[in-house]
Amino acid sequence: MSSRSALFSRHRLGELALPNRVVMAPMTRARAADGGLATPSMAGYYAQRASAGLIVSEGVQPSLVGQSNPGTPGLHTRAQVASWRQVTEAVHANGGRIFAQIMHGGRVSHPDTTGSWPVGPSAVPAVGDVFTPNGPRPAPVPRALETAEVPEHAASYAEAARGAVEAGFDGVELHGANGYLISQFLSSNANLRTDRYGGSVAGRVRFAVEAAEATVDAVGAARTGIRLSPGSTTWGVADEDVPRLYGTLLAELARLDLAYVHLVATSEEEVLLGLRESWPGTLIMNPVPPGGPKRTDRADADRWLGLGADLISFGRAFIANPDLVERLRAGLPLSPEDARDFYQGGDAGYLTYSAYRYLD
Known about the structure:
The protein is an alpha/beta fold. It has helices spanning about 5, 40-50, 80-95, 110-115, 150-165, 180-185, 200-205, 205-220, 240-255, 270-280, 300-305, 315-320, 325-330, and strands spanning about 10-15, 15-20, 20-25, 55-60, 100, 120, 130, 135-140, 145, 170-175, 225-230, 260-265, 285, 310-315. It is built from 13 helices and 14 strands.
């Protein structure tokens, strides 16, 4: 099968039969109601994009201290779990499949947002300003987690996963990318610990593995994926010896038989291809990293399918093109997204993008 036809071929993902290999990547849209509740508008937004082989939701915090940005939804209260049912039911009614991305912000947070002091592997602040209800603020120095506290934060992913499945999600993706808590533990400059969760490569991957193990125990391997960004410097993280670090991590995750690994192209192609070789299961590839100079297009998708990826995730292209799958299939032009609408709230730039209009 050629890579050009592969994008629209079926793929088995755990217990799901995906009708195509197009994945809607997780994207923060900051449209949740007070209390971290999902809304009817969110249900409409995801339902509009249900033709994707798989939707991965925006990052959902597993605890209040794990919330990174204002306006984001949670999965740690009964009300939050109940609020997500309208979203999953709308997606399923439109024939779609949806995983919840579970995202613990760690040090990328602020007391103005959560009412709690951020935590991290070490007392090292993120680089840059973080978003708060009062505008951008310098990232605070996080409180370093005590060794005895670390397992409860790993377990928070599993607890949120239970809530996600109860809410009707088909599975969950652990957010291990882009400088958030799992990524912080992996990082050689954000994680300065000398206990079992730091120091060596084996120590730095331990938190990610324990979070994945707990989630698999909670909802099953077929419902558990993880997103990683090897070599990313987002929020100031740094990884020494990316091939060794992520090769070790993937070897540990392989024994768990996860549904997938979702890689962001934040490292050299040679490194990414090496990681593809070391991962025996389904690989989702995101060819363009966040904030990259362009959005993922059909050529990127075909190329990475030819290089061994199983599924391709599209981010920004899905914002302005709810019918992205059909546009890619038919070679139709893509509408441009307006970055001013990404996080402003409301339905403008959220529910107002339409499917392609054919001229009579």
